[in-house]
From TrEMBL:
The keyword GTP-binding does not apply. It is found in: Secreted. It comes from the Eukaryota. The keyword Oxidoreductase does not apply. Transmembrane segments: none annotated. PANTHER family: EXTRACELLULAR MATRIX GLYCOPROTEIN RELATED, MUCIN-2. It comes from Sinocyclocheilus anshuiensis. Keywords: Disulfide bond, Glycoprotein, Repeat, Secreted. The lineage of its organism: Eukaryota, Metazoa, Chordata, Craniata, Vertebrata. Residues 5-175, 365-470 form the VWFD domain. This is VWFD domain-containing protein. Pfam families: C8 (PF08742), TIL (PF01826), VWD (PF00094). One of its GO terms (cellular component) is extracellular matrix.
Length: 470
């Protein structure tokens, strides 16, 4: 349960600070949501830009800076240090990834930013940043109200507090929300709607959430959503209430609770791609054909989103949606179906339900003699031997199809008597001592007489070729 290290913004201009204050600030400029304000050089910052849409305010851009890495998230793309990237991307201890609903940035510095690509952003910080932050998320000192909305004994209004954290941007013209509105009068006017929201969120089906999460901030947000709605704009009204219920459900799941399936086909419905199904609480680590044990190894908090039905995995090979694991294909140079075989130099692999099952294929052995004294066996053993005789390099006697003996003549070198040289190689086919094939150090070849390369034996089975080195 890391609720006390989370700041979030959602829906109809709602904000919840790290210290638990919930307020509304209807700004549509670019703002500092949270940044490290105690260091001479800021280690990180998260800026957000909100815009108005027909269904209510949305977040059009989230800009994150961590040390010298800048990441800009928009609905259609992700840009890192000015260059468009394809997700997932890893850079300097930062991971940016996405699923069907969220784009998520995680930094090893203890910073997580999650955006639903619409109206909601959540920032989670490591406790080491306590009492070190500034921005719309507050100072993270564990004390509500003070420092944010009461400073030096003076009350600071929500609009005044929000406007203080506007990020100057000469390329974007926007107007600060008025700081003269009577915010207390608005709260008093909306109080009559509080009972409806309390009945909604105190319902028994939300009991798991009330045990792990303070519901009062969300009752307050719900009250404002109902109070400030316009009768003629039903889409906006529903969207605002859905956003607050979604936020409560999202934070409940993150805190370890089990939110109910509160959505219906006609109320706050979510459409999922492929044949995926929506759930208020599921593992963000989705099993796929390529990685079937991802969920088992997952250490992340549950989230809301679109998931594969039980008994299926996501087909990340052909991108056909959720399929039974036994129908998974394999991929190498192309896509292979179950039962298809891939043959490589030293092994043969068969595709079986998305997994490669490989067996080794016996290949030709290699034995070498270098500089007349350095030997490497067929099994890779290396050794040095100096001799003055003919030695058996290799032979096969008990094979009916191919019998041979290969001899090497090693003698002291003419120029360096302490070294040995390979003077000749003798090959006996079918153990025929009278029909030896002799390869000499000067490059000449004899088979009962000198022969010219390339050369093929009379039986047409053995051939010799001349190469630049051998």
């Amino acid at each position: 349960n890391h609720v006390n290290s989370i700041c979030s913004m959602w829906g109809n201009f709602h904000f919840k600070t790290f210290d638990g204050d919930v307020y509304q600030f209807p700004g549509t400029c670019e703002y500092n949501l949270v940044s490290d304000c105690q260091s001479l050089i800021r280690q990180f910052s998260v800026h957000v830009k909100r815009t108005e849409h027909s269904t209510g305010p949305n977040i059009s851009r989230v800009s994150i800076t961590i040390n010298d890495i800048g990441v800009e998230l928009t609905e259609k793309q992700v840009v890192v240090n000015g260059e468009k990237v394809t997700l997932p991307v890893h850079i300097a201890g930062i991971l940016v990834e996405e699923n069907t609903i969220y784009t998520r940035l995680y930094s090893k510095m203890g910073i997580t930013v999650k955006w639903n690509k619409e109206d909601a952003v959540m920032v989670e910080l490591d406790s080491k940043y306590s009492n070190r932050t500034c921005g719309l998320c507050g100072d993270f000192n564990g004390v509500p109200v003070y420092s944010e909305f009461i400073e030096s004994g003076w009350k600071v209004g929500y609009a005044e507090f929000g406007n203080m954290h506007r990020v100057p941007n000469p390329t974007h013209a926007c107007k600060d929300p008025s700081e003269t509105d009577d915010e207390q009068n608005v709260e008093n006017k909306c109080e009559k709607f509080q009972a409806d929201c309390a009945d909604l969120l105190k319902d028994e089906k939300w009991s798991s959430c009330s045990r792990v999460l303070n519901r009062e901030p969300y009752i307050k947000a719900c009250t404002n959503d109902i109070c400030l709605r316009q009768p003629e704009d039903e889409d906006t009204n529903t969207s605002a209430l859905c956003a607050t219920l979604s936020e409560y459900s999202r934070q409940c799941s993150h805190a370890g609770g089990t939110p109910p399936s509160w959505r219906t086909a006609n109320f706050c419905a979510v459409t999922c791609p492929y044949n995926m199904v929506h759930s208020e609480s599921g593992s963000p680590c989705m099993d796929t054909c390529s990685h079937k044990d991802t969920n088992t190894l997952c250490e992340e908090h549950n989230i809301d989103g679109c998931f594969c039905p039980p008994g299926t995995v996501f087909d990340d090979i052909s991108n056909t949606g959720c399929i039974p694991a036994e129908k998974c294909q394999c991929k190498h140079d192309r896509i292979y179906s179950t039962g298809e075989i891939l043959r490589k130099d030293e092994e043969e692999c068969i595709c079986a339900e998305g997994n490669w099952i490989c067996t080794s294929i016996p290949g030709p052995g290699l034995c070498t003699v270098e500089e007349g004294s350095h030997f490497t066996t067929f099994d890779g053993k290396e050794f040095t031997f100096h001799g003055d005789c003919k030695y058996v390099l290799s032979k096969v006697r008990d094979c009916k199809e191919s019998r041979f003996i290969i001899l090497g003549q090693i003698v002291p070198c003419f120029t360096h008597q302490t070294d040995t040289c390979l003077k000749s190689v003798v090959v006996l086919f079918n153990n025929d001592m009278k029909n030896a094939l002799i390869i000499k150090a000067d490059g000449t070849v004899q088979h009962n007489a000198d022969v010219t390369l390339p050369y093929m034996t009379g039986e047409g089975e053995e051939a010799l070729y001349l190469f630049s080195v051998f």
